Amino acid sequence: MNNNLNFFSDYLIATLRLAVPLAFAALGGLYSERSGVLNIALEGMLLTGAFTSAAATFYTGNPWLGILASLIAGGLIGLLHAVLCVTLRVDQLVSGLAINLVAAGLTSFLARLVFSGSSTQQLPGIGAIMIPGLGNIPLIGPLLFQSDFLVYLLFILVILTTYLLFKTSFGLTLRAVGESPKAADTAGISVAFVRYIAVVISGCLASLGGAYLTLVQVRFFAEGMSAGKGFIAIAALIFGRWHPIGSTLACLLFGATEALQLRIQALGANIPYQFLVMLPYAIALLALVGKLGKSTPPKALGTPYFGENHHSD
Description:
This protein has helices spanning about 1-35, 40-60, 65-85, 90-115, 140-145, 150-165, 170-180, 180-185, 190-215, 230-240, 245-265, 275-290. With about 325 residues, the protein is mainly alpha-helical. Helix 3 (about 65-85) packs antiparallel against helix 4 (about 90-115) and helix 10 (about 230-240) packs across helix 11. The protein is globular and about 65 Å long. The N and C termini lie far apart (about 70 Å). Residues about 310-313 have low confidence and may be disordered.
């Protein structure tokens, strides 16, 4: 009985750890897409955050500076996406894909320079912080109260984002810009400014997911280590109906699936490992195809806004 409980506890902890980078990326995507800017660049933002946090930690020996570096880099990638989509009105899908391709190539190139061809350089990571008393509760304690700083930060951000989005004037403004930018503009709101802020926040949050990968999960950087997590985060965002809590729960579902395939592999089941590796992505597709009810995106999502002084030719 005790062994079963330990196995279940370990499985839940693995689920949470695997869901954290997805949840940071999904939260980032939420801000951007609620403002009307499609963000396919989450994959590139995750990868950039992973590399910059690893490189800064490698040079300074301080993982907190690594987190700061990832925030700055993610914000800059978000700024680039905003300039392309909001100011230059480049197709938002094309901009996102371009950022993903550049991030994949550039991080691979720079990683070989920084780590001298050795991607297995062990980094000083961020340790767990046990909350006295609560950390000793069976099952729940190890899961929720013996985690690291970034997990606690994620919990706070999910609650904060839900409050900001639905209970504050900032959230109302953000949603108005994503639903009807013309009406928001008429009401005196700067659509471009709101979208810039939202996409920069998006980059910062997604990059924290990358920092979690390198500083908590594996403690080294490997080329292409985001491995499609940005796209699963987009699936979670759609499945969660662009709601902070719904999207986070969807990330936990995908994390549980990935933890399951790792457990099955470890048990040595006679199943080709390629099928097991494919499982989280298959579940993401099934979730999108068979989602309950209709998931309605913000009405202006993916559509550039031409203000009164601009004309679409």
